[in-house]
Amino acid sequence: MTANDLKADILAKVTEYYRLVHAPKQEAPFQAGTSRVQYAGRMFDEREMVNLVDASLDFWLTAGRFAETFSGQLEDYYDVSDVILVNSGSSANLLAVTALTDTALGERRLQPGDEVITVAAGFPSTVAPILQNQLVPVFLDVELGTYNIDTTRLEEALSARTKAVFLAHTLGNPFNLDAVAAFAKRHGLWLIEDNCDALGSRYRGKLTGTFGHIATGSFYPAHHITTGEGGCVITDDPRLARIIRSYRDWGRDCYCEGGENNTCGCRFTKQFGTLPKGYDHKYVYSRIGYNLKMTDMQAAVGVAQMDKLESFTARRKRHFQMLCEGLKDLEEFFILPRATEHADSSWFAFILTLREGAPFTRVELAKHLDTALIETRGLFAGNLLRQPGYMAIPHRVVGGLDNTDFIMNNTLFLGVYPGLTPAKIDYVTDTIRKFARKG
């Protein structure tokens, strides 16, 4: 038996193993109250497992052939020049901000004390890189219903130190890109889109993640596709891509991929810093960087997941619409979510906010749903400025954060991920309806 024959046999056995252990079995109909209704979950079949084992047999433990394929798939999907794979969406956000501090950007570079406009209602990894780079977040409030930035106060937030805008598309719902992009362009600001929760969302027919100078993505198991841990940085600017790769790869000046040598043709001929002339370019460090690469085994899973993205997105939209229809008669109690104008949202979740005067609290509803085995989550950090680690950070607030505080106290979200079924969604809506009417 040749090595190729043996490999084919191993991969065939992996398919058998998947079908024996992981494949969905013929189950009894959904039993309300006995099976958990998850808000998210990984979706995979034998193709992910075969790719994963295939990559492991290469024993190429860093980025390799699958990473090249996966990044190429994403570049084609977004129609951009560069998608740089990293080990998490949080790392992607760190790289996106850090890249904009680079001296190669001249007067446009972000420097300590410069301001970045953002929101406090969201996940901390959008704001943390601002602080980690000694920049100052400027917080604006968000709208109820869309849960995205209130763009009416953008001009008020501007100062002489404002250099960038960094916003997430909240739970897959695009923020007002017309207003934000025009504001950034008018004032010469960098725009970073945190697209981690919004893979597949569109604004005026164009994919989110392609409007800003840089965008980020996440492939954590709860997201639209998964590699386990993993993320990416998206840009259509080759100069920014070179800077991002350098910071990702220890800060090195060389841009050869792993296993490549002398791509630039001058490996032993240039002078760098006060190093001796001809010092090996592979070991020249022009930046103080990190090691944030994705492994080839993670990328192998991503390659298979990309083939499912379209169907995953369609299911998320369908489940979101089912929840809308199932809860529309409860608007006396709840503010139901709405897509931003001009947006076609690939929803991460279904967000629900109690109205003022509701006869029950968010905590009471969450506890009731938990008892009914229905998973919920709050809108991440609530008001980030009330979190212990963020209470003393340097920052500005423009116009108050009343809606942000209201969300912190009155909002939760439900799942719309592809693994849900109509029976589970009906159970969720029935459970909420009975609780609200009784309450």
Strand content: 5-15%
Structural class: alpha/beta
Taking the sheet with the most strands, its summary is: 8 strands, mixed
Shape: flat
CATH structural class of the largest domain: Alpha Beta
The SSE string, one letter per element, is HHHEHEHEHEHEEEEEHHHEEEHEHEH
Give me the CATH fold name of the largest domain.
Aspartate Aminotransferase, domain 2
> On the 0-100 scale, what is the average pLDDT?
96
Q: What CATH architecture of the largest domain would you give?
A: 3-Layer(aba) Sandwich
Quaternary organisation of the protein chains: single chain
Number of domains: 2
CATH superfamily of the largest domain: Type I PLP-dependent aspartate aminotransferase-like (Major domain)
The end-to-end distance, rounded to whole angstroms, is 69 Å
According to DSSP, the number of beta strands is 14
Strand order of the largest sheet: 1-9-8-5-4-2-3-13
Low-confidence stretches: none
Percent of residues in helices? 25-40%
Counted by DSSP, the helix tally is 13
Radius of gyration, CA atoms, in whole angstroms: 23 Å
